[in-house]
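so im writing up the methods section and need the NAD(P)-dependent oxidoreductase record in one place, dumping it here so i stop losing it
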Amino acid sequence: MSTTRPIRTIGYIGLGKAGYSLASVLSRSSSYSLIVQDADRTRAELFIKEHGNATVATTNASLNEIDVLITMLLNGSIVRSNGTIIIDTSSSSPFHTRDTAELLRNLNPTLILIDSSVTQEYAFALSKGDATLMVGCSDPNALERAMPVLKCMGRYVFYMGSLGAGHAMKGLNNYVSCASILGLCDAFVAGQKFGLEPSRMVEVMNRGTGGIFRRGRGLTRRFKSGYQLQLLLKDMKFARKVIEEMGVTLSLPGLIVRELEEAVEVAGEGPDHTEVIKAWERRAGVELIRSKL
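--- predicted struct ---
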């Protein structure tokens, strides 16, 4: 396989919430043929039923002739054809990403790994093609080849640097967001105990300095952002590792991880990340007033 020919065939492994949405964007493009695979065969078959421009990989050999492999769960033994680009869109440790690249090089020196983490307001909105991609790649030629595919999946594509940079950015982006969420939990429970109405607090924050981040989801009690609390905890551990490996001594990363671990004990591992507020409610002995925000 020539490493300069245009990308025509895309393999996609991992049809979870975000993966399903991103794959659906690719299936709508007439520029590519799509081969999908998932551990849950019924989910892959559902995807094919809903998206005609795709087929199911019945065996690993079905993926041998693809030009690009996009995966949420990297398995380096799947693709062995020369010049294949592997795009990892998961939330992963950037250090693990670099280790994986080394394993791939040992398997086949022509396999090229690109990390491209995803962020967006709602995971379910990824199917609209409005995702923001954070890309790390150490091979300029591979990045040039993959760029049309990346731009097909997302509205905004940011090249962050060498391999692992995309995953590092995802962790740090979520770190900033999470720090804001925990501060918001503090403000809500303290404010309501003082006599403030949480929905009114949100109105003020959205018109002032507190409106830098999205506010108020927990007040609806719907808890349907599409991003699990357990995944947020995982991402915060990745972010803490990045900060520690850079030799930066900070107390906030460890504090955030401990607070989230307590929240998981209260809400469980399956709930939405906005249910983190329940840990604060239990600690403060209050339940925030429900709002239609």
